[in-house]
Specification:
149 residues, alpha+beta, OB fold (Dihydrolipoamide Acetyltransferase, E2P), 2 domains, 5-stranded mixed beta barrel, rod-shaped
Amino acid sequence: MTIGDLDPAALWLAGGLALGIAELFVPGVFLIFLAVAAGVTALTVWAIPDLPPVLQLVEFAVWSIVCVVIGRRWYRDFPVDSDAPVLNEPVRRLGGQVVTVTMPIVGGEGRARLGDGEWPVRGADAEAGTRLRVAHVDNGVLLVEPLSD
């Protein structure tokens, strides 16, 4: 018995099942879409048993693209509630942090210490040693404002 003797629909179904199980071990929300495409291809091959292998592969490719596009759209619009919505965006977490000016802000530009690093800053003129608050980050430059009491 060779692989050519097996039912093509069963092979596609087994492939889809294997992809679905692989998604459990390598979560990335991608293999599941290929598993769905393999399942749809299995249904088509079951309904049309004489479908040539080339057309089966084309159908699988088309359904894979369709599933990934729909899936990406769904996940992009899927709201995520979190205690730390910017956890994986470290630059956005800098907002609200207090910095100490190390190089005076003159003409709106200077440098300030934040943690163990020094950053370029933009804001109102300030002397070295002044403590300011990060209002926003723009392309690696901290936009600072006076501390509010």
